[in-house]
Amino acid sequence: MRTQTLAPFLGLVLLFACGQKSETHGAAQETTTKTTPVADMQTVEIACGSCVYHMAGVDGCAPAVVIGGKQLVLAGVEFDGAHDLCGGKKQAQVAGKVTDGKYVASAVKVLP
C-alpha cells in the first residue's frame, strides 16, 4: 500500500526534475559572440597553435583549429581557455569562416 501511495509522488518529482536546467562545472567551455544556429556548427580539432601544432608565426599560447586539413589560428571570439589547450588536441564545435588564413569564429564550444 505504501508503494502505491508514493508512486504518483515520485512520478511528479521525476517529471519536474527532468525539466530543470542542468549546469556543468568545468565540463565544457563555451564562448559565443552571437546566437548561432546549430546547423552552422561543425565539430573540429582544437589545440594550442604554439604548444601542440608548433605553428610558424604564433607566439605564446593561441587556440587553433584544424579545418580542411589546415591548422588555422582562432579569431573572432575571446577565448579564455587557451592554456587549457596546451596539453593536447581536443574536439570543439565551432561556427564561423576562414578569412585571411585565420578561422574567424562566431561561436566556439570545447567538448569534454
Order of helices and strands: HEEEEEE
Strand content: 35-45%
Shape: globular
User: Helix fraction?
Assistant: 10-25%
Number of domains: 1
Q: Can you count the beta strands?
A: 6
Our Rg estimate from Cα atoms comes to: 20 Å
Largest sheet: 5 strands, mixed, barrel
The oligomeric status of these chains comes to single chain
**So how many helices?**
1
Low-confidence runs (pLDDT<50, min 5 residues)? 1-29, 32-37
Please state the average pLDDT score: 75
Quickly give the structural class.
alpha+beta
Strand order of the largest sheet: 2-3-4-6-5
| CA-CA gap between termini | 45 Å
Description:
There is one protein chain. This protein has 112 residues and is α+β, with helices and mostly antiparallel strands. The protein has one domain. 15% of the residues lie in helices and 37% in strands. It is built from one helix and six strands, in the order αββββββ. The protein has one helix at residues 2-18, and strands at residues 29-32, 42-48, 63-67, 70-75, 90-99, 102-110. Strands 2-3-4-6-5 form a five-stranded mixed barrel. A hairpin with a 2-residue loop joins strand 3 (63-67) and strand 4 (70-75). The longest helix is centred in the N-terminal third of the chain and has 17 residues, at 2-18. The radius of gyration is 20 Å and the shape is globular. It starts with a helix and ends with a strand. The model is unreliable at 1-29 and 32-37 (pLDDT under 50).
